[in-house]
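Look at one such:
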Amino acid sequence: MSLPQLHPADSTDPVASIYRETADEVLSAFGSSRSGLTTGAADERRIRSGSNAIVALKKESTLRRYLRQFADWMIVLLLASAAITGFLGDLGTAGVLVALVGFNTLIGFVQENRAEKTMEALERLVDPTTQVYRDGVLTEIESRALVPGDVVRLTEGASVPADVRLVDTTAFSTNDFALTGESDPTRKFARPIPHEVPLADRHNLAFAGTSVATGEALGLVTATGMHTELGRIARLSQSAPQTRSPLQVETGKIAKYVTYGVAVVSLVVLVIAVQSELPLREAMLFAVGFACALIPQGLPAEVNTALAAAAGTLARQNALVKKLSSVETLGATHVICTDKTGTLTKNEMTVSELVVGGADYRVTGIGYAPLGVFEPEPRSGAATDRLRAFLTAGVFANNARLVAPTGDDDWRILGDPTEGALLVAAGKAGIDLEALRAGSPEISELPFDSTRKLMTSIRRGPDGAVTAYSKGAPESLLARATLIDDGSSVRSLTDADRSALLARHTEKASRALRNLVFATRVLTEADAVSGDITVIERDLTVLGLVSMQDPIRDAVPAAMTTVLAAGVKVNIVTGDFSLTAEAIAHQAGLSGDDGLSIVTGAELAEMPDAEVLRHALGGGTVFSRVAPEDKVRIVDLVKASGHIVAVTGDGINDAPALRHANIGVAMGASGTDVAKQAAEIVLLDDSFATLVNAIAEGRTIYRNITKGVLSCLTSNIAEFVVNTASLALASLFGVPLALNVLQILAIDLLGEIFPIAALGKDPAEGETMKDPPRDSRARILNGRSIVDVVWCGSLIGAFAMVNYLAFFTRNGIDPFSQAVPAVPLAQAMSITYVTIMVCQLVSIIQRRSVHGFFTRYQFTNASFWYAIALALTIMLVIVYVPLVAGFFGTSGLGVLDWFFVLCTAVVFLGIREGGAALRRRRASVPVLRA
């Protein structure tokens, strides 16, 4: 016999052969016994094995999370500009630039930190202690202190603290959903399994991260900490590479190119300014001002505030955003790989159909509340008695408990959800569960196992008779039955009866219904006390068939229709069985390029990458019985093809795929802490419909950010035009500069930033989810948008320079041949500043809608108009409040000056609206081809 070492760190399967050996052989190999280890032996092993703890998924420290906000080209350039102006003695400008950097970095940090704190509140701690035999005595110790070779006692409701080989079991089952994806509890046993089976079928093992559903057991600890199956998945999760979102890539490129351009142009401007006989200090300040004119200082803040606004909207819609860029990534999603249980379904097993005494019944009501009726009502008293006897069998062959709500709690189940659903059905019929059980106490139980596929409870009735109540898989129970209650009498069970019931079972299973057959047998005292399965579970009388389902969430079909119409491909990736997953897919309305296809885990293992990618990109594929490595493979193939993939999950087994995906989406209500830590977005209501809403929000926010980026760059082009013209006039004719650094910053930071940020709250315009996902290679700054920004900004800059020079003409001043007094110069600079500001606000309003300035869409988003009012107020304060005007170098304007500014804005609007109308007309005219 060859068994693994205490910690086979070099093995990919820590329990490769343990399940194939007897319990005594495994105990011997680990140097242990049923009475456990001695304290001394346990202490010695702990030195070698270390603590029984999972190394947490890597988390950024608070400081690192804040410093990461500085990893932006524009932030670096702003800091450099602040350093230069501070060095040259312009502390006011330097202070403004530093404050701007602080504002930009704080927005992203605060949102991400808030999400992290919310996550910490959502996380649930595992049981800190466990029962273990030490020195032959059952004691309670910290779970972290467990070592391989310890013998632990596992009871109903407890968490499994490590990977264990079961030694003794009593009606024992575990909830393995978090690890394997199976929604139903798994019955466990202690006997060896002679042949090789996959991990999910090793039913004599229990794994760390799962919990006990029913019964109790003794288990030998075979692996702890990072050497458990949970630890292996944690290592796989942490191997995921860190990727940047499409928006991060896009804004990074914009910032990079702008930074390079600003550095080169500013250096050239510095040389020209020096050659124009400006003093070095003034030349350097002018170069910094030129740089500030080109830097879209408000861009990081605009993007972050837009994303933060979207994150707030999603939070109110039950989607918690942990990372701001995740909002936009969702909007670019091409492929969704969704889990089934809990995401598409409610994860609440519910009895929906019965076949009793030859009659069919439908049971209304969903969830665990015993509220519902049986349709149609039984036709006679005998039919009512028969239905009650059938439901009674489901109550007796049952180890679950139905718990009534207390306070704000809802009805809940303790134990197996399938057995719990049977109790709920009995409650709907008005059966008093506790009184029924008390009146017929259990003598003994024959627990479920995977060979028999049924369980039996032996009970003594009020009249003293002993009856066996059995429930199990239709094939298994019908093979042990010889009688049937057909509604008129109890008669012999024929082959035709068996075939008919099995046909009903197959038909119902194809609709994602889980089916069980109930049966009874009156026993003699000798049979009852014998405990012989072959004697007790024979000559059974079939009472009928019960069908249960994990109902699909109400909003899923409509959400699936919406997301498919938006061109997003959806696949189901689950550890559950293919027949159940396929039925849920049909109910959800899932479809792909080739309809609906099923790929099992075994088929996936043999499938070449190209075929797997074809299924994933085509959508409509149900990948069933898959392992964590399979999910990662699917996700990595989609990412490598250049498509954006979102993955949903709630189990420990989902964590690696969540980390590898472009966007990981975890379930907040039913999800494990590991899954929530691995994801960027957490759905607090576990609903697929919430995910679809988030995708729509992501698409909207990208459009809003696009409007903001283009608006932001427009003013930079205008400032560039003004500064270039000013430099030319200053170097050739000695004309004073039309703008100073603080006025440029006032435009970018105090004027346009609020309206541009408010664009982030703009609602969708048109049918956002009618368009296909955008190409991840598409750019905000493309040929068309660059031409539009340059044209629009140049217009504003030209109009500003015209107003600047016209002011001197109106006031009889010749700036080309005489020195300009301080007050008229401040007024001329003011009119330049105001012209740019007013035209920029008009440009932002006009750019809001694809239909231009004059559209009903302009009446949406009240906060935008508040921001416009705020921007105008700030502009007037800068011009007219003496203390503020002195700081910015401005001075009050007269009525005639304002007339010229408003006329300029009207002409600018007319040119923009005319151009937009011409483009729309060209787009509506069909192109004639030869």
Observations:
- The longest strand covers residues 163-175.
- The longest helix spans residues 688-733.
- Residues 480 and 538 are 5 Å apart (CA to CA).
